[in-house]
């Protein structure tokens, strides 16, 4: 049996700024008690000879391979820019500094 009490659940509700009714406190007390007991069971099974895992099955890379392709020229990149200067995008200062 864990140490989850109705008073602890009420305290957690206050910390979370959740107003709980008496029925909700009773329901959550039982549910949290079961959760804590199950975590304790898992902790008993976890031994040093069992390797830690982040996922139950191996994951595979689902990305496509990189392939070299033609790139845009500077003129193509800047053709739709609202403003450009010296082969670059021209934008307004955002930090209050004049350039």
Secondary structure: number of strands:
2
- Unreliable runs: none
Structural class: mainly alpha
First CA to last CA: what distance? 68 Å
Q: Which shape, going by the Cα principal axes? A: elongated
Tell me what portion of residues adopts beta-strand conformation: under 5%
> What is the averaged pLDDT score?
87
Description:
The chain has 99 residues and is mainly α. Helix content is 39%, strand content 4%. The chain contains three helices and two strands. The protein has helices spanning 6-15, 22-45, 74-78; strands spanning 84-85, 88-89. Strands 1-2 form a two-stranded antiparallel ribbon. Helix 1 packs across helix 2. The longest helix has 24 residues, at 22-45. It starts with 5 loop residues before the first helix and ends in a 10-residue tail after the last strand. The mean pLDDT is 87.
SSE blueprint and pairings:
Blueprint: H1 6-15, H2 22-45, H3 74-78, E1 84-85, E2 88-89
Defining traits:
99 residues; two-stranded antiparallel ribbon; 3 helices; 2 strands; elongated
Short description:
This protein has helices spanning 6-15, 22-45, 74-78, and strands at residues 84-85, 88-89. The protein is mainly α and 99 residues long.
